[in-house]
From TrEMBL:
SUPFAM superfamilies: Winged helix' DNA-binding domain. Residues 1-52 form the HTH deoR-type domain. Residues 313-335 are annotated as: Disordered. It holds the Pfam family WYL. Keywords: Transcription, Transcription regulation. This is YafY family transcriptional regulator. It comes from Nocardia acididurans.
Length: 335
């Protein structure tokens, strides 16, 4: 549709055959798209017959975005959330977050007139709390996206977690946003293995114009593969909680977990943690019943912790002169 508008905005007349050829579509598809443009309010003139043509009326140079009310609101909120991310480094004020912030300030001029007052009011009253995140170059996202879609090798310099620099030649597949970080899932040709790379650590990204044959992803999705790598070495626990999924999600919003609704008042939580003790206390603070499904190690550790807590609740500290405080059974005082 945008390519068709670009052609028609030149103001010249096009025959159906010429326009269909430029767009590499069938005459039937061209007629359908012209009718869509008319439905959106663009006056496309047509003349049938051997000397027929298509022409866009004068004064229609920049089309507004074809968004309904909910889509316009979602676009503004999305830009606000992305624009709230900023780098802690004062020398890195560019990046996708800064670009989103700039777009947030001018998106209304591309919306249909009926939506502009609502968009202006929303923009003036929506404020997203700042979030610190590494800056990522929008050009890098675009370059990798094109290379992945075209199955084209790329090269770049990369700084690893320990600060070691290396030169990489990879097959790009997916870009994943997780925990305010952008990652690239790629096949490293020199290491002959799958690797994930932090995009904020990528430098001197270059396309090679060398094609590659796509490989099947190493997991159900790139996000699943990335999460498996990040959570490696952590404990995995599955718990059924007697509370709505939305309520549990709100309490665990900063944790790496999956929450599956089992009904209006039950949900299953799969979570990866460094400490079972932390998890059982966090679940206890939900103040609802829960059952530990797996692993057995978590159930055993919870029982040990419960015994310690019961012992603490049935004893009190008393201090004797010249000695450290000791535990004695709690005795109800008579008044």
């Amino acid at each position: 549709m945008l390519l068709l508008l670009t052609q028609l905005q030149t103001g010249r007349r096009f025959t159906g055959q010429e326009l269909a050829g430029r767009l590499a579509v069938s005459p039937r598809t061209l007629r359908r798209d012209v009718e869509r443009l008319r439905d959106y309010g663009y006056p496309v003139s047509t003349q049938p017959g051997p000397s027929g043509f298509y022409q866009l009326a004068a004064g229609r140079t920049l089309p507004p975005l074809v968004l309904d009310d909910d889509e316009a609101i979602a676009t503004l909120v999305g830009l606000a959330l992305l624009g709230s991310t900023s780098s802690p480094d004062p020398d890195e004020r560019a990046g996708i977050g800064a670009a989103a912030a700039r777009a947030f300030g001018k998106i209304d001029q591309f919306l249909p007139k009926r939506l502009r007052p609502r968009a202006t009011a929303l923009r003036a009253t929506v404020e997203a709390a700042p979030q610190t995140a590494p800056a990522v170059d929008p050009e890098a996202l675009t370059t990798l996206g094109l290379a992945a879609s075209r199955h084209e090798l790329v090269t770049f310099d990369y700084t690893g977690r320990g600060g070691r620099d290396s030169h990489r030649r990879v097959e790009p597949y997916r870009q994943v946003h997780l925990h305010l970080r952008w990652y690239l899932l790629a096949w490293d040709t020199e290491r002959a293995d799958w690797r994930t790379f932090r995009l904020d650590r990528v430098r001197d990204l270059t396309t090679t114009a060398v094609p590659f044959t796509p490989r099947p992803l190493p997991a159900r999705s790139a996000a699943d593969y990335l999460r498996a790598g990040i959570t490696a070495g952590r404990y995995r626990a599955v718990v059924t909680v007697a509370a709505p999924a939305s309520e549990v999600a709100d309490r665990l919003k900063f944790q790496d977990c999956d929450i599956e609704s089992l009904g209006p008042a039950r949900c299953r939580v799969t979570v990866w943690v460094d400490s079972f003790e932390w998890l059982v206390l966090t679940l206890a603070f939900l103040d609802v019943d829960f059952v530990i499904d797996e692993p057995a190690q978590f159930r055993a550790r919870s029982r040990e912790l419960a015994q310690r807590l019961r012992a603490a609740g049935s004893a009190r500290l008393i201090s004797r002169s010249g000695s450290a405080p000791t535990l004695e059974p709690d005795q109800r005082e008579e008044h």
